[in-house]
Amino acid sequence: MGGCCCASNGGSFSPIMFFATSTETPTGNLVGAGPVDVLTLGVSPPSPGQHQVKLDSTVELILNKPAGSPLSYNIEYRLQKVDVTIATLTETRSFNAAGAATYTLIPNLTWNDTITVSATYTVEIQVITISPAATTVTAQTRALNAIVF
């Protein structure tokens, strides 16, 4: 979804575009799946030339740990532009709870980029390490939006 907004003092519209319709990729358990694309968003410049893009992204991850062992994990959250990683956030944590438990992780990235032509942005999740191995990680609520100006 794109559209101009924000009237300027002269009564015409400024070339600010907001893109919020991203494609959510269905995912199962992310453990052992390698890099998994969970969202994509196409962004176009409003006019010829160089434009700034502000990107905001988040994915809610649910970690379900079985009873018996403490939980430890290393999960990477990547923002990509045309299949090239432009930002990475790594979550590494340990919890000593031995009982079965559910944890919610909500990583997010805000990034500024520059485009001159249309580009596709992707959010990718990869579970690098997790213990115990029977823990499941699923992507739930997710969002990726862009403002081009």
Report what the structure shows.
This protein is mostly beta strands and 149 residues long. It has a single domain (14-148), classed as Jelly Rolls (Sandwich), CATH 2.60.120. It has no helices and 11 strands. It has strands spanning 4-7, 13-19, 23-24, 36-43, 51-65, 71-81, 84-95, 101-105, 108-115, 119-131, 136-148. Strands 1, 2, 5, 8, 9 and 11 form a 6-stranded antiparallel sheet that branches. Strands 3-4-10-6-7 form a 5-stranded antiparallel sheet, with no helix packed on it.
Secondary-structure blueprint:
Blueprint: E1 4-7, E2 13-19, E3 23-24, E4 36-43, E5 51-65, E6 71-81, E7 84-95, E8 101-105, E9 108-115, E10 119-131, E11 136-148
Antiparallel strand pairs: 1-2, 2-11, 3-4, 4-10, 5-8, 5-9, 5-11, 6-7, 6-10
